[in-house]
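Following up on my earlier thread - several people asked me to post the actual chain instead of describing it. Fair enough. Here it is, all 527 residues.
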Amino acid sequence: MEPTHLFELVIAMFVAIIALHYAAHRLGMPPSVALLAGGGLIAFLPGLPTIQIDPALVLVIFLPPLLLDGAWSIALGRVRRHMIGIASLAIGAVFFTCAVVAMVTHLLFPSLPWAACAALGAIVSPPDAVSARAVLERVKLPRRLQILLEGESLLNDASGLVLFRFAIAAGVTGAFSAVDAVGSFFVLAIGGAVVGIAVGTTWVLFVRRLGDEYLIIAATALLAWISYLLGELLHVSSVIATVTTGLIMSWHQHTVLSASTRMRGTSFWTVIVFLMEATVFILIGLSLRGVVERGGGFDVVLATMGLPILVILIALTLARFAWTYGSDWVISLCNLLGVKRYTPLGFRGATVLGWAGVRGVVTLALALSVPENFPGRDFILVTSFAIILGTVLLQGTTLGYVIKWSQLTEPESAKARFTMSQAEAAMAQAQWATIQTLAYDSEGNLIHPQLLNRYQTRAEKIVDYAARTDEYAPMLQAHFDVVLEAVATGRRELIRLHRAGDIDDETLHELERDLDLEELSAISAKS
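Reply from S.P.:
Thanks for posting it. Predicted structure:
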């Protein structure tokens, strides 16, 4: 394909992403489903060449920034509190699901080597970080469930990759050791964490000295690939290296980045992540044509593989439910025995957790990377794609309904000690205390009376609001509605002045930025 034609296809794909996202929004459906279905339809358009996806390239392009973004935005304090639960899902559930899928596949196809069965299990066992984000951003979950799913999606790829590599090696060499696999996993995980700590710490020290906002934003974006590729180079877990780097950056970003850098960087990064997430689902859909052609066409695939694939999909789903219910039962048993460190999720919470195992780009990339001469490669590839399709279309579209059915509420023990209003009151009082100190000169003369009065009034009002939030909330909403109307009026007048030639472009941009900040502040306060 000519380079210019490839570029045209890329631009057409981005246009399709915008159109499909808009259609999903209008129809009230998850964007991931619309993108996956749209990509599948586009793949069969007459005249369009078959899209060949390099799995290694897909992983190295898309996975690092999406992992880093997930780690950047995750609540680190909650990760520490729920690390046992996250590890149970990211390691225990992946290993258990891999074993169940391998056994079911071997029962269905006794002639298929155990290594091939294990390879399929490793490919489909880890829920995908990209798919999980696409689902979770549209639903409201209690904080504990949210952090369990987010933490699992960030770390479980490392488990799946280790299992996959050992299964492929066993299929090629005929030798496999479970002890070596477990030992290798922990060595790779620890090595990846060390690399991530080194890269993240270097960023913290380096970013303080850069000074220029755009250099800082560019360096921060590149760090995702630097940590991932360094992990690959040192033969440790690149996934854990990237996640660890992101966690360190997330912890220190509040102290090493200026407000302006953080706002501009967030805007830039949000668009990049949006395009990458959407592109992943489009690429999965576009790969449908090659998968079906390799399997011999839709008729052949349905006739020869349809029932076994359905059985494996059911086994995969039941295995996750068995693990989540089993883990919750163990916690309940420990509570009965007097060990009350953890609180069980309950049947409804465990059901939501079990239903949230959507597969995506990692599953596809691993399936495509199976060697050509590997036993059962065609079946592995078709099954992997069918599981991606099934979990995205079924679980991705119904998770919201499952959550509504569960009627989960945030337990009091999981709520923060301070509400947002109380935190604002504490900040306002601290600011007022500082102004009280600085409002006077060295001789005790008041030199900033207006600042002192403004911060005092602000602190008193916010403290009063925190004590009577329910009473003031309707008035606050109306207040900021008026503020937003005033901002809109100011914006119209500013544009009129610019169009009339009364102000230049520099004045327009400076005053527009002030209005933008005022609007964002009002929207944030109103919500």
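Residues 64 and 225 are 6 Å apart (CA to CA). That should answer part of your original question.
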